[in-house]
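Feature request, filed as a ticket because there's no other form

It would be nice if the structure record came with a short human-readable summary line next to the tokens. Right now we just get the raw output. Example of a typical job, pasted below so the devs can see what we mean:
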Amino acid sequence: MNETYFKIHLMNSSGGGFPASLMEAIDQVTVDQSDQAPQTFQITFSDDYSLSNFQNISVVSASELQIGKRLKIGASVGSESRLLMDGVITNVSYQPPTDHSVGQYIVSGEDISYFMDIIDKSMEYPFCLDVAIVTAILAPYLALGILPHISETIAGLLDIFTTPQQMGTDRQTLNQLASSHAFIFCIRPNDLLGQTSAYWGPPPYDDPLQDPLVVGYSANGNVAEIKFGFDGTKPTRTWALVENKETGIPIPIATLTSTSMRDFSAHPALTSSAVLTAKNKAIYQQGMGIAQAWSRAQAQTNCTADSAVTASGKVDALRYGQIMRAPGVIPVAGAGTLYDGKYYLNAVTHTLSRTQYQQEFSLRRDGIGTTLSSVKVPA
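Raw output as currently delivered:
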């Protein structure tokens, strides 16, 4: 595998680059990407008088680095460039330089969904499905350049007996509504100069495969470290008795297996033969119709079953040759028949310094055994 170079990009909200004096002062950039809002970032700058002609203005007083400023963080590896974060600065800390040490100025913050989390609201949405509520919540944020990406839910039947309510911030409500359908809500930056999307929908299990993680000591190996785990106690079937509001007769509902991660493992944990330690949980669904109650029950089963098998590890971005994108889908090769195959990439921590670019990743899926006949490993 040919090694290549990497580059850090810092931009303002309109896409303009930061001054060279600020870029030269960067010590480290850390971006935590995941499939849950908020995502976070931290940028550490050196504050050395020798870098600013003995005037303490180059970093600490920079207008781009003040509380409330929106910024974009991108990275390039070889010819690939990608936006990692569209965020807002929420915290700063400063350690002035001394005779014995270089000063540090650290800015940190959250993705742009921070602006969805600053006002508590109490609202009703009569005769609205969850999709309609999400659409209404996200509409005002188009003014910030956030494009809504909203998926339909399984339970699309309107329950005329209840009135959905919002008690909390927009981001809290979006996360709450997502979890009730085994969905996710997160901010997904697109390419380096592209738009930012607010994604509310199922985990993107259908995303194109990213370049594989190759385990081993061969010339094609690109993983610095990785470990796998299979928690047989995590998968949970759910059941309940839901009262029919028209007849008053309780109707049983039950879930048997996950309905979302269909082709990731050869032996899903909630099949009868794969695991005997799965739990069976009674749930209590009051004030809901049958369709809504079943949807909530299935969401709980999906969330537990789809993370029965996990993996975590680290790659050097120069050796891996690509920029990981979370959430996403990535294959693993070289770990053996039980743990090779497709995984859902639910989190990546990008750490870039002057000399290194490391990516720490978190993977999950619903069982063991690969469903891929082969994985194309880059030469």
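Something like this underneath would help us a lot:
The longest helix spans residues 290-305.
The chain has five helices and 22 strands.
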